[in-house]
Predict the 3D structure of the following.
Amino acid sequence: MVLIVQKPASAEGQVQAFAQLNVPSFSNAYLSVRFYVDGAMSVDNSDWFSFNWLFSPIPVTVDGEQVFDSRYQLPVGYNYFEMRRLQQPLTNISVDRSFASPVPGRWYQLEIATFDAYTTVWLDAEMVMDYRDSKPLPEGTLGFEAWLTDPDIRLLFDDIKLCKLNKPIITDVQ
């Protein structure tokens, strides 16, 4: 099964598409997913998509304030791929940025692993980002988000594998 996200040709302006997988919340987990960008992302970054990791739309209290959207967001746009730590309305900050820049016209293999406070991201088996969070986010789930202006851009997601971790993933790079 392939998840396809595309702006309807009849829609005006920028359109948001959001898909959240129907899986129980998790904290320590590993994700593997293939993705493909069919069409050119705009240079002004008005077309972009993201993987929302440990996504929790359930309000929680953080430092005495209510947070209504909590996640590690991995946005992909024209010439960028980064990791953001988002807890609205408190924070939305970039915590790591990759030199890897996914381009249209080919499949990519993305892997994300979080264990306790440490999150690592691989693109095509190469570690491209890692982050140790001093205040790890609460458990959450997985979502795909897209903001598209161009109806000719299609985003395809395939081979989605998600599993809980009982110990950290150890690689030669860590």
Observations:
- The mean pLDDT is 88.
- The chain is about 0% helix and 60% strand.
- The longest strand covers residues 154-164.
- The radius of gyration is 16 Å.
